[in-house]
Write a structure and sequence with these properties.
With 247 residues, the chain is α/β, with parallel strands linked by helices. The protein has a single domain, classed as Zn-dependent exopeptidases (Aminopeptidase). Helix content is 34%, strand content 15%. It has a six-stranded mixed β-sheet, with helices on both faces. Strand 6, helix 3 and strand 7 form a beta-alpha-beta unit. Helix 1 crosses helix 6 and helix 3 packs across helix 6. The longest helix is centred in the C-terminal third of the chain and has 22 residues. The radius of gyration is 32 Å and the shape is globular. The termini are far apart. The N terminus is likely disordered.
Length: 247
């Protein structure tokens, strides 16, 4: 084909224009909802005291199978189990005695508790000292048995907390062939003694005696994971009820 100047030109061919690919908007993944813990935000602080230490004389029982029950180890294991359960529920707590080998004086334990009472408010704290009971010479098993809870002498705010814990224990332990002990002379089931660790603590305070490690049946159960889980569960259920009663 000739143009005006005698120059051959090719016919113009319109090339198809490639279309831009359509990019579909990507939806941002939604964050998984964070499940709120049942007691998250509660203004209630559990002060956990595990009794004794590895250096405390006595406080142990040799079993027929050669194993030895050490109360300091039991108390610390129960407190750890309680703490894990409180974590799951969102209930604040403090472990007052992380030491294992040194037996912290009872007045020092109370002072540590009172420092948290000052920080959080006496009415927002609850002190529990965890123990296991004993009777006899520490060599031969005895018939003394049962779970009990102790407060100081007289009517105090601790009495109601102790009653709640006792009611929980009394409803659970018989299912495992275990029993409770109570002292009803003043109308409630707790035993009363001015033990330094609860007497000098400002907030409501109890001491639990978790069965007798000088009783063959009970100590064998306390050496099992089941027994320890049940004991920890009793404390946590009691704590939950105490918090619920405050609402």
């Amino acid at each position: 084909m000739f143009g005006k100047n005698g120059i051959t030109s090719e016919p113009v061919v319109n090339e198809p224009v490639a279309e831009e690919p359509v990019v579909e908007p990507v939806e941002e993944p939604k964050p998984e909802p964070v499940e709120k813990k049942p007691y998250e935000g509660v203004n209630f602080h559990v002060l956990l005291d595990n009794g004794h230490a590895s250096s405390t004389p006595g406080k142990r029982m040799k079993l027929e199978n050669g194993r030895v029950f050490y109360e300091y180890e039991f108390n610390r294991d129960i407190v750890r189990r309680i703490a894990r359960k409180l974590d799951t529920l969102g209930i604040p707590y403090e472990i007052l005695v992380p030491e294992v080998d040194k037996d912290i004086a009872l007045s020092e334990r109370a002072a540590r508790a009172n420092s948290f009472c000052s920080k959080y408010g006496t009415g927002n704290c609850f002190f529990i000292s965890v123990h296991s009971n004993a009777f006899g010479d520490g060599i031969n098993f005895t018939d003394a048995k049962g779970w009990s809870v102790w407060t100081t002498v007289g009517n105090t705010k601790s009495d109601g907390c102790a009653t709640t814990l006792f009611e929980v224990a009394d409803s659970i332990l018989p299912k495992f062939g275990m029993t409770t002990r109570k002292q009803m002379s003043d109308g409630d089931p707790d035993y009363e003694e001015n033990f330094t660790v609860i007497y000098k603590t400002w907030c409501p305070a109890v001491l639990t005696e978790n069965m007798f490690f000088t009783n063959k049946k009970e100590v064998m159960w306390l050496m099992t994971d089941e027994g320890r889980e049940v004991i920890a569960h009793i404390h946590v259920e009691g704590i939950k009820r105490i918090i619920d009663e405050r609402k």
